[in-house]
Structure formats: C-alpha cells, structure tokens
Amino acid sequence: MRIEYDVKLDFADVLIRPKRSTLHSRSEVTLDREFRFRHAQTTWRGIPVIAANMDHTGTFAMAEVLAEHHLLTAMDKFIKTEDWVHFAKKHSAVLSSCFFSLGISEHDVEKLHDVMKHVPTIAFICLDVANGYTERFVACLEHIRETYPDKVIMAGNVVTGEMVEELILSGADIVKIGIGPGSVCTTREKTGVGYPQLSAIIECADAAHGLGGQVCADGGCVTGGDVAKAFSAGADFVMLGGMFAGHDECSGEVIDVHGKKFKRFYGMSSTEAMEKHHGSVADYRASEGRSVDVPYRGPVKETIHDVLGGLRSTCTYVGAQRLKELSKRTTFIRVTRQRNESFVHYEVEKEKGG
C-alpha cells in the first residue's frame, strides 16, 4: 500500500481565468478541429463532441441530428446487425459520424465482424469496457487493430498516463478517460476506485499527445462550463451522456409524473441495464449504476446550441479564436465555490414538449 499526496482536481475545483482578447464576437470562434489519427492514418474534421454509447443516447435518431451539427455519436453496443443495415441504406452519409461500440466478449467481436461486413463504411470503432487495465482488454484491442488497420479506434476507459501509453502503442487512436465520474455511475461507491476527472484528463492528455494519440474525456460534465474545462484541460474529444439525456432523440417513452414529463436514464452497469440486455445481474458482480427519471427536454438541437454557444463564449474569455488554442490559453484557478445559488430554487423553468 502507498499513498499519493498530490492534490487531484475535479471540474468543481477550478474556474478558468479570463485573459485579454482581440476577438470582437463569439461568432469569430471556430469550434471545428481536424485530426489525423496515428494508426488509421485518416483525417477527420468536425466538432469533437460525442454522444455516449449508452442505449439511451447512442441512437440512430441522435446520430442524425448530431451529424447535421458536425458532432459524433458512439452508438449503443446492443443495436442489432439488421438495424445497422437498414439505417445504412437510408442514411449512409451519417455513418461517417458514428462509432460502432463493442465490449471484449467473443460475441461482441463476432458482431463487429458481421456489421462491418454488411456496413463497411462505418468510420469509427469504440472498444468500451469499465476497466481498461486488463491484459484481456489490451489483447482484444490489438486483435481489432490488426483486423481493421484503417478504422479509427477509440478504447477505454482508463485514467492514468502509463495505461494511455500502452493502449496507444497497442492500436488505439483515441483513449477514453474516466472511471466513476458519470452521473449514473456508482463505481466509486461500490468499489472505491476512481480518479478526479480534471486531473485525469490533464495527465492522460499529456501522455497521449507525446505519442501522437488523442484522448476523449468521458463522464463528469454536468454543465457547458464543464465541457469547456474538459477541452481546456487538454481533451481532444468530450463524450456526453447525462447532458444529452431526456431528449426526443433518446430511446424510451416520455413518462408523465404528476403533470411533469420525464424520460428514463440509467447507467449501462445498472441493474436495469443488465436485466434488459443480459437477463439478470450475474452472481459474481454488483450493479455499478443507477436508474433515474430525467426531465423531458424536447429536441436535442437546443442543447447542442447551448453547449456550443457556451464553448464559444469560453474561447472569447481567454482569446482563443480556435478550439485548438483553448488549452494553450487556459489558466485554471483553484476555488471553493463555483457560483452564487441564492435564487436557484426560484428559477423559472421553460416548458418543453407541450
């Protein structure tokens, strides 16, 4: 046993210090980024925000809307092959903005091969497990890279620089960062394992960029300001689950509770998710997610505009004309309080969805 005494930070522990700027308006800020990926040797240009590969947010309806705004979607790993084929016939252009998501079981890998055989134009692969530190995970990554040398592979999740380096050297173009920060994740409660997300991004981005790889911050963003802090900390991509939950494009029906509208949202390691997709919670594991009813929020395009508008504003506060410049122009300051909440409980909510 050993103890690290260095302070590790989360989004709530910091604010971004403003700087003098020559920008006249938020409209001058460019959020598009262009990446050439280390292994795939392909180039992508767009806004590097990704809808999480949860069965609530990783839907074809979400992918259509996000693609219109040059954002990406990591698709739900439980989508059937025939549904991929059907979607590809009518929305082939959207496939360049989609990740095929899978775990590391033999069934998952066989399904990847099957889908890629029928829909070879899918541009991205997301190899996704809760614990990216196992030898089995690395071996699976190596196999997928060997099989699909020209596909962009995102792999995770991890939170430390040395494992980021191993995954990049084993075939990952992008490494997904985050253990336990998600709004419907209970890993930290159940296992005691985790890492404050801001520090994880800073340390892992440094490791990845030294090898020509990229990182995706996965989890912990509750507000547009958190998205900005993730990019400011060095994240190349930011993945959002809870912030994209509750919209028309999400799976599930709208629930009416005492005149207020909600949609169900749950972690993919929750009891609800495991019972839905696997029949039950295996007797050797615990549920590491929660189920919640989130307020119904209408079309996701309004949230997209809100997040991207806030990000442009962040850039103007520090004088970054391009999103690429944001981390270079950021100084974080330690704080004990984020905002004045005197009247938060009296806030007038905009009615959505009728």
Keywords:
354 residues, alpha/beta, three-stranded antiparallel sheet, 10 helices, globular
Describe this structure in a few short sentences:
By secondary structure, the chain is α/β, with parallel strands linked by helices.
Explained architecture:
The model has no long low-confidence stretch (mean pLDDT 92). 31% of the residues lie in helices and 18% in strands. Helix 5 crosses helix 7 (197-209). Strands 4-5-6-7-8-9-10-11 form an eight-stranded parallel barrel, surrounded by six helices. Strands 12-13-14 form a three-stranded antiparallel β-sheet. The protein is globular, with a radius of gyration of 20 Å. By secondary structure, the chain is of the alpha/beta class.
Report the count of strand segments: 15
Based on CA atoms alone, the radius of gyration comes out at 20 Å
**End-to-end C-alpha gap:** 57 Å
Percent in strands: 15-25%
Q: What is the string of SSEs from the N terminus onward?
A: EEEEHEHEHEHEHEHHEHEEEHEHE
**Average pLDDT, all residues:** 92
The coarse silhouette is globular
Number of helices: 10
Secondary-structure-derived class:
alpha/beta
Strand order of the largest sheet: 4-5-6-7-8-9-10-11
Give the uncertain stretches in residue-range form: none
Largest sheet: 8 strands, parallel, barrel
Helix % is 25-40%
